[in-house]
Amino acid sequence: MSKKTSIAKLLEKKKLILASSSPRRAEILTRKKVTFEIKIPGSYNEEHIFSDPVTHVLEVSRRKAQSVADQVGDGIILGADTIVVLDGEILGKPKNEDEALLFLKKLGGRMHQVYTGITLINKPTGKVISDYDLTKVKFNQLDEQKILSYISTGEPMDKAGAYGIQGMGNFLVDHIEGSLDNVIGLPTEKLREMLKQIA
Questions:
Q1: Hey, which residues are catalytic here?
Q2: Which among 71, 161, 173, 181 counts the fewest CB atoms within 10 Å?
Q3: Domain count within the chain
Q4: Distance between CA 9 and CA 77 in Å, rounded?
Q5: Residue 1 belongs to a domain
Q6: CA distances from 198 to 37, 57, 114, 151, 181 (A)
Q7: Does residue 176 lie in a domain region?
Q8: Which residues have CB under 8 Å from 161's CB, separation 6+?
Q9: What is the pLDDT of residue 70?
């Protein structure tokens, strides 16, 4: 079986610009030995732009990449957006601790979906591609006291669905079906496929 070309190799002669303030996406790229720079996308309200999860993550990732592309002359811009979906409802980042508790109680003992949309823009060619990945996540039955202890750490507050699978929140998860990196915020296998099309 032929060896897969790594993300770092695909980007060898290219500059990658990450249009994201997410430390988790930066960590994933660093782990993959990718050299990149960060540009924070312009601010806008991400909440429930679209009710369809796929349309939502594709559109938000495109907006993030596009807002950075205008400031960049050369390179590949990467925009990404991750959401948690339960019974068709998009659970974004909790507004406060009460909402974090509500989200985690809803997710307890249930299977939910995590979608990440990725948009790549190749400057100066102007080529744009968008795609998404989907991972199913099954939560354990959760004890309210444990949820409250977890919320008190502050970890859930800047994360879609109010949990971080790679952090203290891993006790919440029974199992996953699909990419762990997708749940963290950047599906590397999907990114690799997309780079082959655009780099």
A1: 81
A2: 71
A3: 1
A4: 17
A5: no
A6: 18, 20, 25, 40, 21
A7: yes
A8: 83, 84, 86, 91, 103, 107, 112, 114
A9: 86
Q: What is the separation of C-alpha 50 from the centre of its chain, rounded to a whole number of angstroms?
A: 17
Report residue 95 CA to chain centroid gap: 18
Give, as one character, the DSSP assignment of residue 140.
Answer: P
Full residue range of the structural domain in which residue 85 is found: 7-198
On average, the pLDDT of the chain sits at 93
Query: Which residue in 129, 121, 120, 138 sits closest to 183, CA to CA?
Result: 138
pLDDT in tens, 152-163: 999 999 899 999
Two tokens, residue 33: 């030995």
Q: How many CA atoms lie within 13 A of 186 on its CB side?
A: 25
The two tokens of residue 185 are 């915020």
pLDDT-derived band at 109 (thresholds 50, 70, 90) equals very high
State phi, psi for 166 to the nearest 5 degrees. -90, -5
Give the DSSP H/E element, type plus range, for residue 84: strand 75-86
Report pLDDT for 1. 39
pLDDT at 82 over 60: yes
